[in-house]
Write a structure and sequence with these properties.
The structure is a single chain. The longest helix has 18 residues. This protein is globular. The protein is of the alpha/beta class and 246 residues long. A five-stranded mixed β-sheet has the order 2-1-3-5-4, with helices on both faces. The protein is built from nine helices and five strands. α1 packs parallel to α6 and α6 crosses α7. The structure holds iron/sulfur cluster (SF4).
């Protein structure tokens, strides 16, 4: 694989990706954001005590799920000791525990847990990805990093566009990341003013997927009861209905 070294190369390489496997491989070899490259590698080197005997992935984390997904789940970025450790998005941390358990209850995942990239989990009708593909310090990418990474997201959506019907945005960052996709992938002018993010928020335009808002599955939300399993079940039931998934 050829390393991607700067934002211009992200644009060019993403545009050339012929399918999801090609895109996933290219994403994994991206080094375009110096601060995030330093952080992801430092976390992988120092590790958390509980995972000291494990090899961290320490690279960008591609999307996960089949190419004919009718539902997409859009997150913010991989977690330092979750996706950045295991190499699969939302895998190996409490956020992922909550998310994949809900996907399993909804019949969209073959098992309720996602602990490692080789644990046998498969998704049905849903693809999970993030707006920024590298773990950022404090879960806060800069606007420059967000924009540098956007072409990967845009190409991924373009590749699943033939079947994609519904996008579930986990949190306000993901909700905001959808509007450039609307312009770049679907050629639609984003609504103005932008619809406000909220749990249960809903936006639909013409010839583009319906956007649903859902509180992020972060520990801050799930431990405090701001986001409950029942609330997630309601969102995924609605997403399935809108997407025509049985
Ligand atoms: S955040 Fe995105 S653009 Fe930046 S280095 Fe990671 S994969 Fe590349």
């Amino acid at each position: 694989m050829v390393e991607v070294r700067n934002p211009a190369e992200v644009v060019a390489r993403a545009a050339r990706a012929t399918d999801l496997a090609d895109l996933d491989g290219a994403v994994s070899d991206c080094f375009a954001c110096p601060r995030l490259v330093t952080w992801r590698e430092e976390v992988a080197r120092t590790r958390r005590a509980a995972f000291r005997d494990q090899d961290y992935w320490g690279r960008p984390v591609p999307g996960f799920g089949p190419p004919d997904a009718r539902i997409a789940i859009l997150g913010l970025a991989p977690a330092a000791h979750g996706g950045n450790r295991t190499g699969r998005i939302f895998t190996g941390d409490r956020s992922g525990d909550v998310l994949f358990a809900a996907l399993h209850r909804a019949g969209l995942a073959t098992q309720p847990t996602s602990v490692a990239a080789d644990d046998g989990l498969a998704l049905r009708d849903v693809r999970v990805f993030s707006a920024v593909r590298c773990a950022p310090p404090d879960n806060k990418p800069t606007p420059t990093e967000r924009d540098a990474c956007a072409p990967w997201l845009h190409r991924e959506v373009a590749l699943i566009r033939p079947t994609l019907r519904v996008v579930v945005a986990l949190g306000a960052f993901a909700w905001a990341a959808w509007w450039p996709v609307l312009r770049q992938v679907y050629g639609n002018r984003p609504p103005s003013p932008r619809p406000v993010f909220g749990h249960g928020a809903h936006w639909s335009g013409t010839a583009a997927p319906t956007l649903l808002g859902c509180y992020h599955v972060s520990q801050q939300n799930t431990f405090t009861g701001r986001l409950t399993p029942g609330m997630l079940d309601d969102v995924f039931a609605r997403a399935k209905q809108l997407a025509g998934v049985d």
